[in-house]
Design a protein that fits this description.
binds iron/sulfur cluster; three-stranded antiparallel beta sheet; alpha/beta; five-stranded parallel beta sheet; Rossmann fold
Length: 247
C-alpha cells in the first residue's frame, strides 16, 4: 500500500488540464483546414481532382469536413496555395451543412438544440456502436477513458447496455450487415436520446463512400444531433464536441 502511495506521489497527476488550459498538439497534426479565398481556380480544380474523397468544391472554394479524411494531399498542391491545415482540433458541428466550410465553423455551444444541455449537462451515458468501422475511430474513442483524458470527470461515460444510455455514438460507415443491429440498439435507448456521428465514415461513408454495401450517411436512417469529423477524430476533437454540445 505504501508503495502505491509513494508511486502516486512520484508520478503526480497525469490528467490533462484541458479544457481549463489550452493544449498544443504535435506539429504534424492536421486540424481545421483554412482555405485561401484568393486561390486561383485552376489550383482549386487541381486539388479537387486529386482529392480521393471528392471533398473539395472548387467553384465555391469549400471543403466538406464530413467527407475529408485529412490525408493532406490538397495541401501539397502548389505549396498549399489552396488550403493550409491548422492545428485547431475543434471541429464538431450540430448541422451537417456547417461541415462544408472554408475554415469557419459556427460556435458549437450556440447550437439550437439547447434542451440537450438541460437534459444531459450533468450526466451523459453513451452506448458506442461500431457499425463496420476500421477500429481507428473506436480506438481513439476508447482513449478518452484513459487517465490523461479521464472523460468520466465530466460526467460522461460509455455504458454496456443501450437501456442504460442517453444516446448512441456511432462509428463506421454502417454496413448493410450492421444496419439492423444499429437500429435495434437505437430503439433500445429510452427517449429522449441523442445520436452522435463520429468519423467521416458515419457522416458520409468516408473511404467507403459510394459503396453499395454501406448506408454511408447515418443521418439518412437516424436523426443525427452531433457530427464529429475526422478519420479518425482526434480524442480532443471528440472531447471538445461533447463538452461544447452538452455542457
Ligand atoms: S485532406 Fe481532405 S480535402 Fe484534402 S485531399 Fe485529403 S480528403 Fe481531400
Ligand atoms: S472514419 Fe476513418 S478511422 Fe474512422 S472508421 Fe472510417 S476509415 Fe476508420
Amino acid at each position: 500500500m505504501l508503495k502505491v502511495i509513494k508511486n502516486r506521489f512520484e508520478q503526480g497527476c497525469k490528467t490533462s488540464s484541458y479544457p481549463k488550459e489550452p493544449i498544443t498538439l504535435y506539429s504534424r497534426y492536421r486540424g481545421l483546414p483554412i482555405v485561401n479565398k484568393d486561390c486561383p481556380k485552376i489550383v482549386a480544380v487541381q486539388c479537387a481532382q486529386i482529392c480521393p474523397q471528392e471533398a473539395i468544391d472548387p467553384e465555391r472554394l469549400l471543403i466538406d469536413l464530413g467527407r475529408c479524411t485529412f490525408c493532406g494531399q490538397c495541401e501539397t498542391v502548389e505549396n498549399g496555395t489552396f488550403v493550409r491545415f491548422s492545428q485547431n482540433f475543434e471541429l464538431g458541428a450540430a448541422n451537417r451543412q456547417d461541415l462544408i466550410t472554408d475554415g469557419q465553423l459556427p460556435d458549437l455551444a450556440a447550437h439550437a438544440k439547447a434542451h440537450f444541455k438541460k437534459l444531459f449537462g450533468r450526466s451523459l451515458q453513451l452506448r458506442q456502436v461500431s457499425a463496420a468501422g476500421c477500429n481507428a475511430c473506436e480506438a481513439d474513442t476508447n482513449v478518452l477513458n484513459t487517465p490523461f483524458f479521464d472523460l468520466s470527470r465530466f460526467g460522461i461515460d460509455f455504458v454496456a447496455s443501450p437501456r442504460h444510455a442517453d444516446g448512441i455514438h456511432v462509428t463506421g460507415p454502417v454496413s448493410m450487415n450492421m444496419k439492423t443491429a444499429l437500429l435495434t440498439t437505437y430503439e433500445a435507448v429510452p427517449s429522449p436520446k441523442v445520436v452522435i456521428a463520429s468519423g467521416c465514415c458515419s457522416i458520409s461513408g468516408g473511404p467507403f463512400y459510394g459503396s453499395s454495401e454501406i448506408i454511408g450517411d447515418l443521418n439518412s436512417i437516424l436523426p443525427v444531433d452531433l457530427y464529429i469529423p475526422g478519420c479518425p477524430p482526434h480524442p480532443l476533437t471528440t472531447l471538445h464536441a461533447l463538452l461544447k454540445f452538452f455542457k
